[in-house]
Amino acid sequence: MELLDRYLHAVKFWLPKAQRQDIIAELSEDIRSQIEEKESGLGRKLNDAEVAAMLKQLGRPVVVASRYLPQQHLIGPVLFPVYKFVLKIVMLCYLVPWILTWIALMIYDPAYRAAHSGRALLDTVRSSWAAFWFTMCLAVGAVTIVFVVLERAQAKSDFLDNWDPRKLPPVRDPNRIARGASIFEIVTNVVVTTWLVEATWSPLIFDRFGIRITLAPVWRPFLGAIVLISLANLAFSAVNLARPYWTSSRAGLRLAVDILGSGVFAWLCKAHIVAEFTASGLSAAEIAETTNAINLWIVKMFPYAIGVGVIVLAFDLYRIIRLKRAATPSSGSMAARVLPTSASG
């Protein structure tokens, strides 16, 4: 029953992770029992409108989920899970990038590290953290004020009662791979790899308008590694197109290929791949200075390459963990305490 599945999926989003599966299993059983009881009394199957009316009587998914949570009244038991979710988003979008960028600059940017060493480092950390916590307090305070206003507003309105279960989003299987995405990956890999091989097979990659750009010999091994990684990704995409569901073995191989690709990309940033950048009117000294400046600019991309690699690998690891959790059956059961008595019968 699609409408019930969508409702349960929406409730599941707000539940505590440790108890999510058990709660949903029992909640599903209880609701289905009520539906079967009504169908038995009517002598026919319920239609979507009747199922929607039952679900509406149970309450919005966030309200149902709130009955399983500790009764925390900073904002209110109904809006509190939404409040926590928004705070997590704010923290992830501000705190994590801020810390990772600062660490990357300290590790991989010699000029930044030299300017912030010794006493200067302590002063920088002190001033940076002071500014960081001031901004965080403003952000958390603003979110809290917004939810306090929402709490007061929803208490005086019928917002939580006036909703339509048929407008809930459809259930999405996180382990299903969209065939459109696989086709896009195949086309992109073929086009980009073909262009890259044709454009960089010769060390002289640009010779127009009096400008010549020549790659260093070290580029050739990188090109070979990139082609191999692209072929591996093509194979993955082809398999995913034929069998559009993640498996543990395929997820593990994807992690291995992404580790290799991230390593190659990070190494490329440090390799000084531009042998010469020549332009008409430049002296030999200016050519050497320009070439060196280009290579140094590429080197400065190294922290960002590391950051992107970490994000990609984090998604890969999360996929593997999710598959292992899905393969492990949940145990135990929780007493039903969500359905209002008025909803039965």
Describe the structure.
There is one protein chain. The chain is mainly alpha-helical. Helices cover 68% and strands 5% of the residues. The protein has helices at 2-13, 20-42, 48-58, 61-66, 80-108, 110-115, 119-155, 179-200, 219-242, 248-270, 284-299, 302-327; strands spanning 204-208, 211-215, 274-279. The chain has a three-stranded antiparallel β-sheet with strand order 1-2-3. Helix 1 runs antiparallel to helix 2 (20-42) and helix 10 (248-270) runs antiparallel to helix 12 (302-327). The longest helix is centred in the middle third of the chain and has 37 residues, at 119-155. The chain is extended, with a radius of gyration of 28 Å. The model is unreliable at 330-338 and 340-345 (pLDDT under 50).
Q: What is the compact description of this entry?
A:
The chain has helices spanning 2-13, 20-42, 48-58, 61-66, 80-108, 110-115, 119-155, 179-200, 219-242, 248-270, 284-299, 302-327; strands at residues 204-208, 211-215, 274-279.
Radius of gyration: 28 Å
Helix content: 55-70%
What share of residues are in beta strands? under 5%
List the strand order in the largest sheet.
1-2-3
Low-pLDDT stretches: 330-338, 340-345
The secondary-structure element order is HHHHHHHHEEHHEHH
Oligomer: single chain
